[in-house]
Amino acid sequence: MVRALLDPSEGEPFEIERADGQSPVIFVCEHASRTMPRSLSGLGAKADTLTSHAAWDIGALATAQKLSALLDAPLIHQRFSRLVYDCNRPPDARDAIPERSEIHAIPGNRNLSDEARRQRVAEIYEPFRQALAELIAARTAPSRQPVIVTIHSFTRVYFGIARHRAIGLLHDRDRRLADAMLQLAEEQGISNAMRNYPYGPDDGVTHTLRLHAVQYGLLNVMIEYCSDLIDTELGQDEWARRTARLLETALERFHIDIHAAGPQQA
Questions:
Q1: Is 257 helix (H, G, I), strand (E, B) or coil?
Q2: What are the tens digits of pLDDT across the range 57-83?
Q3: What is the pTM (predicted TM-score) of this model?
Q4: Residues 83-121 as b or e (16 or more Cβ within 10 Å = b)
Q5: Which of 61, 115, 124, 152 has its CA 20 to 30 A from that of 208?
Q6: Cβ–Cβ under 8 Å, residues 59 and 235
Q7: What is the pLDDT of residues 73-119, one digit of tens each?
Q8: What is the 3-state secondary structure (H, E, C) of 122-190?
């Protein structure tokens, strides 16, 4: 019998901030934390792995929190490291519980029993999935449709290859919001944005969008920032402001007031 993954004193595997925010936007940050459950003893990984981008998306949570405050929008985020379970992956995805992340080995994820894998799903993924679904449902009405925006970051260098873009705007088969943002980005001084960069739907990174937005016809986008742009408070402030303005202008095309409840898209 596998013992409980989380002690009650460690709290829920997710947190919702500004649940009563008036904006139609719901921000999601799946890779928000590098915290490890005490029961896993760091998964046997090296200390530098547990502070690296392998364990979390550096700067993503702080940027999402600033966006949430600027727009008075709800934010839900994962409270434990994606090395325990990546909530932007379905349970059948091989990289939902990674044995290796780029150059980083994760010994504690090797040769997991089916029971141990099911436990990670039950204690981390399912509560997060259900909480996000309930948050969306609570804010959905015939005249009010939420907009789902997930916030991530990527490393400047990956497997030795430099990445030269500042921001990626990702989508699955629903490209409406990403298209609008990309069209507006350059005129707002964001000249190095790129579609489905540095990953795309074929890499399995649009799970949250597909599960919670695409199948319901909700506008959605995944935003990826280069982490060296948002690893300081100054950078987080700057990119939160720029992103808020970009979202506001893009959503005007869909007759959506980003700051408050009101008439929404059909």
A1: coil
A2: 999 999 999 999 999 999 999 999 999
A3: 0.95
A4: bbbbbbbbeeeeebbbbebeebbbebbeeeeeeebebbb
A5: 115
A6: yes
A7: 999 999 999 999 999 999 999 999 999 877 788 999 999 999 999 99
A8: HHHHHHHHHHHHHHHHHCCECCECCEEEEEEEECCEECCEECCCCEEEECCCCCHHHHHHHHHHHHHCC
